Amino acid sequence: NFSEPVVFNTDSGSPRLELSSGTGVYASFTARLSDTRYLFTYTVAAGNTASTALSVDSFDLNGAIIADAAGNSFAPAGGGALNRSILVDTATPAAPLVSGITAGTKYTAQSFTITGEAGAVIEYTIDSGSNWQTYVSAVSIGTNGSYVVQARQSDAAGNVSPVSSATSFDIDAGELLTSLSTTRSDGRYGAGTDIDIVLNLRKAVTVSGTPALSLNTSPVRQALYTGGSGTMALSFRYTVQEGDSASALDVTALVTTGVTFTDANATVVNAYVNLPAAGDGNTLAEQRVIDIVTGAPLLQSASLFGANLTLAFNRVVFKGAGEIVLSVTGSDYRIPAVLSESRYNELYGKLF
After folding, report:
1. H or E segment to which residue 287 belongs
2. In whole angstroms, what is the distance from residue 352 CA to residue 347 CA?
3. Chain centre distance of CA 6
4. Of 169, 259, 261, 330, which has the fewest Cβ atoms less than 10 A away?
């Protein structure tokens, strides 16, 4: 803006304004708006920077002549500040930093935060760039699936950063141990019987150490680990010992002292290898009904009612093939005082 009408003579050059955004940076004369107002245009170029308010360093006539109606020439006298604060920034911001997640398979929800340049608009993608979302606060992902997280930012001047390096991971939430099983059929098993118990997993697990299974036997016994590391089935064996008993054999605890379970990515997964809860049909007792019975049954009492003799044992017994014969030695037989001779003779014939 000039204080009075002036005329630009650009036959020998065009005036320009030297700016503070870099060496040799100018705003060029582009149009006359009125006798006192002339337009200069500045196009920001790569490398231009004005971290403080953009200003005019000098008015360069550059061969042009500017004069008023009386022929008085305009003599530039330095530069000056603009009537508003404008910053010039052409530097590409660095890629933002994504924190809180690592690559691999995860068994719980994952969350991450993103740190970028002050005032920048940050965006992120969880599907390798197919979709971008504006970042506001920490992002949590809990749905099972595969994810590729990246981020980018646009600073206040509109400069867009490179995309951050990708972090790829899978969420596979849920217990890894799905059920217990055995090759033994329902039934009763005695001393010396080997009962193999298998932990069925939904993905392969490597075992370091020697796990064991605590059983509901009396006394408490353990099934010892026999193999399966690196597969989806870990095997254990319980050998019935004399004196053991159990009604519906079951596993009461997975003993993992000094034991580490890892998946294919070497992630420790001990927290996700747990016995299935009763009620879903996946425990050993829900898969099979196996009773442990050792030692001979004990006769607890005998009762005679008329011609019927009832024997009570300390546990359930079963009659196999053949006949049950009861005998009393003659020296041990006594005639009760209440029996008549004929009754005695009748009973004697049945018992001997």
Report:
1. helix 284-287
2. 9
3. 74
4. 330
How far CA 281 is from CA of 34, 217, 250, in Å, comes to 91, 20, 12
The predicted structure's pLDDT at residue 309: 86
What's the Cα-to-Cα distance from 216 to each of 10, 182, 286, 294, rounded to whole Å?
104, 16, 14, 15
Tokens read off for 278: 């009763």
Amino acid at 197: I
Residue 258, CB-side half-sphere exposure with 13 Å CA sphere? 4
**CB environment 194-211: b (16+ within 10 A), e (fewer):** ebebbbbbeeebebeeeb
* List of residues 6+ apart from 27 with CB closer than 8 A: 16, 17, 19, 40, 41, 42, 56
The three-class DSSP label of residue 15 is coil
Q: Which tokens is 187 given?
A: 């039934």
Strand partners, 291: 188
Q: Which of 328, 321, 324 is nearest to 313 (CA)?
A: 324
Gap between the terminal Cα atoms of the chain = 141
Listed in sequence order, the residues at least 6 apart from 295 whose beta carbon sits closer than 8 Å to its beta carbon are 191, 242, 243
Q: Is the pTM of this model over 0.70?
A: no
Q: Are 164 and 235 in contact (CB under 8 A)?
A: no
Low-confidence ranges of the chain (pLDDT < 70): 328-339, 349-352
**293: β partners:** 245
- The b/e string for 232-259 (b: 16+ C-beta within 10 A; e otherwise) is eebbbebebeeebebbebbbeebebeeb
The whole-number pLDDT of residue 328 equals 67
Position 171 scores a pLDDT of: 96
Element (DSSP H or E) covering residue 6: strand 6-9
The two three-digit tokens of residue 4, written as one number = 């009075």
